[in-house]
Amino acid sequence: MHPKRKQKLFIILGLLSLAAIAIGLTLYALRSNVNLFFSPVQIADGDAPVGRQIRAGGMVKEGSVERDDENLDVVFTVTDYVDDLEVRYSGILPDLFREGQGVVVVGELSESGHFEANEVMAKHDENYMPKEVAEALEDSGYSPEDYGVKVEGAD
Amino acid sequence: MWRIIHQFGSPKGFYDFSARLQPWFWAAAVLLLLTGSLWGLLYAPADYQQGDSFRIIYVHVPAALLAQSAFVGLAVAAVIFLVWKIKVADMAASVMAPFGAAMTFVALFSGAVWGVPTWGTWWVWDARLTSMLILLFLFFGIIALRGAFTHRDSGSRAASVLAIVGVINIPIIKYSVEWWNTLHQPATFSVTERPSMPAEMWMPLLLMVLGFYCFFIALTLMRTRNEILRRESNKRWVRELVRGQ
User: What are the TM regions of this chain, as residue ranges (chain B) (predicted)?
Assistant: First the structure.
């Protein structure tokens, strides 16, 4: 290759790696701030601030959803299978909200340790399937979340 | 070997060569997009949780893929232009940038529309969504920077440098859903693993992705040819071409 072109290519590569290092270090320094939400474990460890607007996320624990008959109040437990977090919310829940489903809740952590949510967002996984397949999986004793696992196991 | 590359890289060589390629890509794009969208929107089964709103995937995923591919294309063209001084690469980059910006917007917009029924919000500042928004601003920056110089060559060089530096955002977009916890779910499609949906759902998606790529290539070839004619309008071969018709 022409020496001048070679030099130019090296300048470009050098520029690119310097920029990559700079951005990499920035993101590394910001790593906890880039995370969208705190998990119940982090909250139990005291990483999350009390009385400030934060987000928490995890799975809605099976059998933990209690709705009030009189109004829209709902209490449920968010878990990451290590620690639990009790969430209180009053309002309309998204369509995908159900037990065993991932959620992100926005609100404040109270002194007593429960979470006062003012917004609930449903997180969904990357698995899609037709209704019939989901029902067939449930009939044979699997939950739809096991789809990927089951297919891999069948290999 | 070098002679072939040089011939292909010369404006006239590229103009003649792309004339032969172009109709094939247009035909493939129309065929794939038509089959893919009809199959995806009418015949593919609805999702067990999301119902019909899941069909947005047939636009959202291809648009997001193309947005990132267009940016990688920009960066590759920028290196070729800066190091080997091949003008066609810069012409191709100048027509790829608006397309990439449009695709990024489509991905963001379809994602917002999809987010309302599934997540319960149309926007959230999570790593995937934010890095995608940065990609949109990078495209805008590249387009604006190119036009900001009175001398065309300076504009091309500045836009090329921004494209090369901006390419760092691409792995960030790709891995954002793995490095940080986000509301956005992990990738549906990956080269190494089996797809996370049954064949009657991912087949139309695959057709749509291929169709978007063919459309991108066909459009880039066509617009690069126009750009060649515009920039080389005082060259003899262009004059002869115009006079001959």
Answer: 21-44, 56-83, 95-117, 129-149, 161-181, 201-221
